[in-house]
Amino acid sequence: MATHGAEVMIDPEALQVTQAALEDTSMAVDEPEKPAFKPLKTNSSQASGECRAASGAACKGKSESRKVPIPPHRLSPLRREWLKIYSPLVEHMKLQIRMNIRSKTVELRTCPQTTDASALQRGADFVKAYALGFQIEDAIALLRLDDLYIDTFEIKDVKTLHGDNLARAIGRIAGKDGKTRFTIENASKTRIVLADTKIHILGSFQNIKIARDAVVSLILGSPPGKVYNTLRTISSRMKERF
Q1: Is 138 helix (H, G, I), strand (E, B) or coil?
Q2: What does pTM read for this prediction?
Q3: How far apart are CA 95 and CA 86, in angstroms?
Q4: How many CB atoms lie within 10 A of CB 223?
Q5: Measured between alpha carbons, how far apart are the two ends of the chain, in Å?
Q6: How far is CA 234 from CA 31, 150, 180, 206, in A?
Q7: Could you say which residues of the chain have pLDDT below 70?
Q8: Strands 105-109, 96-100: parallel, antiparallel or unpaired by DSSP?
């Protein structure tokens, strides 16, 4: 049994060792959040060569592609005018294109010769415009200009019409021998395609708004003469601006 009066013996040499260990600056506390690594030594020419090889592999491996569906009634015109569609996409936009008869789509893909980042999107918009019914001469403007868009809406989005009322609305938009449609196109500097109950408008944002407002007025029952006067006023204002 230990006695209460037992003396505790402390070695003076142990105290000296402990004090020396605390005062030693070489013994630092571990900091896991700040590891110290030796600087990495690499050959600069080898590193640059590896970077070039990696970038070249990335360019070759990453080829974007798009598929544009073609409606059945536009397949025959597409075959007839394939050369006119093929040439600008391959020669000017530097894209790869093919017609997939089985899936009824036109497939576009970038290649190492493609330099323009927006070439694929412009090419897809061009093919889509032709599939909607626009002429090649009008759709090719999508490849050359930046601020052109296609707006699509249906007659039922404006007003629910059926039977003879729907036929009369389409007739008001087209006009006799297409006169009303041509007038809207010339006044607003757009191109309009009437595909049954769907209406496609090609042009700039501001011009599309002008043409859409005129078409909506005709759908709602406004007489063509009133729409002509409105377009004439808008056209004169546009000429004054420029």
Answers
A1: helix
A2: 0.69
A3: 9
A4: 10
A5: 113
A6: 74, 21, 16, 12
A7: 1-34, 40-61, 241-242
A8: antiparallel
CATH 3.30.1370.10 in the chain, residues? 60-144, 149-241
CATH number of 149-241: 3.30.1370.10
Distance between CA atoms of 206 and 72, rounded to whole angstroms? 32
d(CA 18, CA 8): 18
Assess contact for 222 and 215: CB atoms under 8 A.
no
- For the residues of 58-106, what is the DSSP string, one character each? HHHH---EEEEE--GGGHHHHHHTHHHHHHIIIIIS--EEEEETTTTEE
Residue carrying structure tokens 């360019």:
59
CATH of domain 60-144: 3.30.1370.10
Helix axes 205-219, 224-241, angle to 10 degrees: 170
Distance between CA atoms of residues 135 and 21, nearest Å: 89
pLDDT digit string, tens, across residues 63-86: 888 899 999 999 999 999 999 998
Closest CA to 188 of 236, 223, 224: 236
Burial 31-46 (b: 16+ CB within 10 A, else e): eeeeeeeeeeeeeeee
Q: In whole numbers, what is the pLDDT of the chain averaged over residues?
A: 79
Strands 191-195 and 65-69: unpaired
